[in-house]
Amino acid sequence: MHLHLDTLALVLAVAVPALAEDPIYTSAITGSAHPIITPAPKGPRPAVQVAGPGLFASFGHNAGSPSAISFPGNGAIGSSFQAVYPADWAGRIAIGKDNDPDYINRGSLIEASYDNGAPFVDISYVQGFSIPIVCSCGGPDTGVITGCNVPLYHDNGSPCPLPGPSSICFNPSSNSPQSTGGPVPPFFSPCAGAAYTYPNDNGAGAGCGSNLISCCIGSTCPSDPKQP
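Now predict its structure.
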């Protein structure tokens, strides 16, 4: 798909090559408090294209941020879509297997901003993990700059500490202060430093010299060189 770039907008293009992460945990929430939503990083204004049956997307922006120029709306992801954001936008796109806003926004997040023409993007599992996501600066073949392609439920590692509905694993570090240096919860440790796994996991974010950011959803996506 060819994207026509507007120099005043950031394009965030997302694709789903395969969905290999079948649900492992489907339990209900048992007394866990809603995590504190951390603000999106400083950076660019985005547009988004996403593909993949069985997934949903939820779009949001920070308080005081302008809203999207255009976007497909919250709901099921089709074969592809694109959203475009104005200058000084900052916010997030949640991707998950449940369209309920109480849950999808507590899973895997693409966080981005477009301040002073300087895009910034990160993948955040601070609230929780729902599916692997990675992003590249420019086209999809330019190399991953943020995110983690490890299917954490299938990594034969530590069990999810706070299982939620629709394959979400809530992160117990979500309520920790921004100043904390960790520790990373063991379930999330395979992605530490590549995706945000605790509030101050700041090495996970990255600036981009292009107003096109390409993201990929699923464990078959390329890995981030920063993955442990």
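Residues 1-7, 19-52 have pLDDT under 50 and may be disordered.
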